[in-house]
Specification:
single chain; Alpha-Beta Plaits; 11 helices; 324 residues; Beta-Lactamase; 2 domains; alpha+beta; 6-stranded mixed beta sheet
C-alpha cells in the first residue's frame, strides 16, 4: 500500500506540525538515509537536534553497534543489520506492507552514555517528488518494557526465598544442558535440609521459613552471576555451578553450610544442617537430559541423607561438611 503526499518546507503549517509533533517521526529513503526527522526523534534517542539530512539512520542517531558489529547502516551485510528491528521494518515496507504497532529495540551511545530503548513502530511507504521514501512513527515504550521485565523477574522467583522458582529453575537447567559448548564443565548440586520436619515441629513453621530465607541469602552471596540457584520444592534447592569441577563445587557448598550452621547455632542454639548430592558434567560425561541429571543428583542426595547429616555424596565419594 502506498500513500501519496506532497511534503514541502514552504508549506509551513504541515512542516511545523511535523517538526513539533510530540510523537517521534522520521522519513527515510529506501537506503535508510534520513530525509526529514522531527525534534521529538532526537529527544527519544537522547541526542541534541542537528542536521541529519542524507545521513544513515544509525549514524544520525548514534547506533551503538555502528563501527562495532555493523560497518555501515542500511547495507544489511552484517548479522546485526539482519536482526535490526528498524532495518527489518524498512525491508517489510519496501515490499509493500504497512508496519502496524511493531516492537523494536535500539541501542544508542551519545556523549559516552549508552542506553537501550524500546519503541512501538508504525510505518508506511510514501512518494515525495517522485521519490519513494518511508515514513516511520515511533512511540517510546522503554518504561513499559522495563516494568514488563521486572514483572517477569518477580514471576520467576520463589517469593519465600527470593531464589528461582521451580518453573524458572527447570527452564534454566534445560537451557544449560542444551547449550552447545562442549569444552567447559558444570556441576549440578541438590541439597535438602536435615531433620527439617523436626525443626518445624519443635520451633514452629515461622522458624522453618527463617531457615529457608537465611539459607537463600547466604547462598546468593556465594554464587556467581552465571550460576543457577533455585528452589526445587519444599526444602530442596538446586545449584548449577558453571565452569567449575566437583571439588570446587563441594567447597562452595561447605562454605554455605558452615556460615548457615554458625548463624543458627550462635543466635538460636540450634544446629541447622543440610545434605547434598553433587554431579559434574564435562567432556567425558555421557550426554544426559536435564531430567536424568536431576534424577542422578537426587539419588546421590538420598544416599548422603542415609549416611547421616551435614555431608555431600558425589561419584568420587563422601565429603562431610562438619568436623566429625
Amino acid at each position: 500500500m502506498e500513500r501519496n503526499v506532497e511534503f514541502n518546507k514552504q508549506d509551513t503549517f504541515f512542516y511545523d506540525l511535523f517538526l513539533g509533533n510530540k510523537i517521534g517521526q522520521v522519513i527515510v529513503d529506501e537506503q535508510f538515509n534520513i530525509m526529514f526527522a522531527n525534534i521529538r526523534m532526537f529527544e527519544l534517542l537522547d541526542s541534541a537536534p542537528y542536521d541529519v539530512v542524507n545521513m544513515s539512520f544509525g549514524r544520525a542517531f548514534h547506533c551503538s553497534e555502528l563501527g562495532v558489529n555493523c560497518q555501515e547502516c542500511g547495507t544489511g551485510d552484517s548479522e546485526y543489520c539482519k536482526s535490526c528491528g528498524f532495518m527489518n521494518a524498512v525491508r517489510t515496507i519496501k515490499r509493500g506492507s504497512l508496519i502496524d504497532n511493531s516492537t523494536v529495540k535500539f541501542s544508542c551511545c551519545y556523549n559516552n552514555h549508552f542506553e537501550e530503548k524500546w519503541f512501538q513502530l508504525n510505518g508506511s511507504k510514501l512518494s515525495y517528488h517522485d521519490q519513494n521514501c518511508i515514513a516511520l512513527v515511533l512511540a517510546d515504550i522503554t518504561d513499559l518494557k522495563q516494568r514488563e521485565k521486572h514483572l517477569k523477574e518477580l514471576l520467576s522467583l520463589d517469593l519465600a526465598t527470593g531464589s528461582m522458582n521451580k518453573y524458572s529453575l527447570m527452564k534454566a537447567i534445560r537451557k544449560r544442558v542444551r547449550a552447545k559448548e562442549t569444552t567447559d564443565q558444570y556441576s549440578i548440586c541438590m541439597i535438602d535440609f536435615d531433620n527439617f520436619k523436626a525443626l518445624n515441629d519443635q520451633y514452629g513453621h515461622l522458624f522453618g521459613d527463617k531457615v529457608l530465607e537465611k539459607f537463600s541469602d547466604i547462598a546468593r552471596r556465594h554464587i556467581r552471576k552465571d550460576d543457577i540457584f533455585g528452589r526445587y520444592g519444599g526444602e530442596e534447592f538446586v545449584f548449577v555451578f558453571d565452569n567449575i569441577d566437583e571439588r570446587q563445587s563441594l567447597e562452595i557448598l561447605k562454605r554455605i553450610h558452615t556460615e548457615l550452621e554458625k548463624y543458627f547455632t550462635k543466635r538460636y542454639k540450634v544446629s541447622v544442617t543440610f545434605s547434598a548430592g553433587v554431579f559434574t558434567v564435562d567432556n567425558g560425561t555421557m550426554p544426559l537430559s536435564h531430567t536424568e541429571l536431576l534424577a542422578k543428583v537426587d539419588s546421590l542426595l538420598y544416599e548422603a541423607k542415609s549416611r547421616g547429616r551435614g555431608r555431600a555424596i558425589s561419584p568420587s565419594g563422601e565429603k562431610p561438611f562438619m568436623n566429625e
